[in-house]
Amino acid sequence: MTGYRQSVAIVLALAVLPLTGCRVGPKYRQPTPLAQAPPVSYKEAPAQFADTGEWKVAQPQDAMLQGNWWEIFGDPELNALEDKLNIDNQTIKQYFANFMEARTLIAQARSELYPTLGVGPGFTRSKSSGNLTNSATANTGHESSITSAPMDASWAPDLWGKVRNLISEEQYNAQISAADLEGERLTEQGSLAVYFFEIRGQDALQAVYDQTVVADRKELDLTRAQYETGVGDEVSVVEAQNALQNVQAASTALGVARAQYEHAIAVLIGANPSAFSIPVRALNASPPPVPIGVPSQLLERRPDVAASERMLAAANAQIGIADAAFYPTLTLTAAAGFQSSTLKHLFDWPSRFWSIGPTASETIFDAGLRRATVNEFIEAYNSDVAGYRQTVLTAFQEVEDALAAVRILSQQVGQQQEAVQSAQRVVDLEIARYETGVDPYIDVVTVETTLLADQQALATVQMQAMTESVDLIQALGGGWDRTQLPTPKAVSKNLTAAESTIQR
């Protein structure tokens, strides 16, 4: 009995080793994202330029979007579509399931901190050979029964922090997955808004063509009437007819792009494209004032930057896991239970048995395998540092690109509106000259072609300005910020029954 108590004491003493053991490997320190501190303002911000058209940025200077960023456009139809996307988008659901899967890996890693226990009750009935001895039982053999109820235990204490580093790595990976989820959510939301404004732009172009078709029909009727009364010539009739036919063909072609954008939105919101449609309504909005904040805030606003930084933390933990291979491994095994030749005495005290013993192992020679493994993870970490800094630089580039695009397009919209007004004035004057017989009808066709091109350009640039404003919001991180990234403790919580239910 004394030996048994001593063994139990040894086990209890070793049980606290994971709490006091070392944790080898480098301590993680977030590297600097840029060689220099971010500037106090963006280079392409409207405040840096005298003429930015009608577009401005929201104030105060450090304000940032929060929550449902698409509501800044003030379009109830867009709001409804975005709300549906957040519920039914299948790609977002896929990324969410990936995040849930990453969380389960934490629980798997955490289980290695504890012993594994197993039971294996069994019964055997045997008969020995009768030709083994010259005893009285010769030629008859000996029959015996053994009933056992054993319990086995095995445990490798985390003396050097290998398991704790593995848990940290999986926690960081789960955070990466959470950031990827938010990045994909922002991408899907942005795509929907872009497609929505593309459709509105196509509707605006359609309105231009519809007006042109009406005007060209009237002119065809006029030239035909003049020809029939002997005032005009047949050439003018054919020219008017050709102009109308070209506009009708171009108008028909617009339906292709609109249909495809409509189908794309249907897929984004989880709807069957065959049963989904968006009513026709021409674009009549301009880019809203967007709160862009200051450059130093950008690193806290982008999910991809957060994911890249968490990747560094996970890579650092991998180095610690590899470092633990240089230290010995201790494994404790134990077995206990009851064993008896008769079932009724199986659980009697004399039927008990037990064994316990530690095993230590250490690699003496591996031809440099462990050192090479550590170096591999060190270089992987260095690679991730470069990737992190590249992600940061790309984030600033995307913001500057979008700022420049929205600012310049806003200027172009005003200039194009003036061009349309001038072209319309030329058309009015030329039609008057044609109707009084001063100029041939071909001059009317020429100036009307210029007007149509200017109107097309205006509708297109207005649409581009709206889609670029969506790109700007995406580049700024939408309404997300790093405080929404779940902590290692939060991602370590066990999944609920609802979260782990199989979808049907």
Annotated CATH topology: Outer membrane efflux proteins (OEP)
How do the helices and strands follow one another from N- to C-terminus?
Answer: HHHHEEEHHHHEEHHH
Shape: elongated
User: What's the CATH class label?
Assistant: Mainly Alpha
Give the helix proportion (percent range): 55-70%
Rounded mean pLDDT is 89
The CATH architecture assignment turns out to be Up-down Bundle
Largest sheet descriptor: 5 strands, antiparallel
In the predicted model, the low-confidence regions spanning at least 5 consecutive residues are: none
Broad structural category? alpha+beta
- Count of distinct structural domains: 1
Describe the protein's topology.
Elements: H1 2-15, H2 17-20, H3 76-88, H4 90-110, E1 116-119, E2 122-127, E3 143-155, H5 162-228, H6 234-268, H7 295-298, H8 303-323, E4 329-340, E5 352-361, H9 369-435, H10 441-475, H11 488-491
Antiparallel strand pairs: 1-3, 2-3, 3-4, 4-5
Helix pairs in contact: 3-5, 4-5, 5-6, 5-8, 5-10, 8-9, 9-10
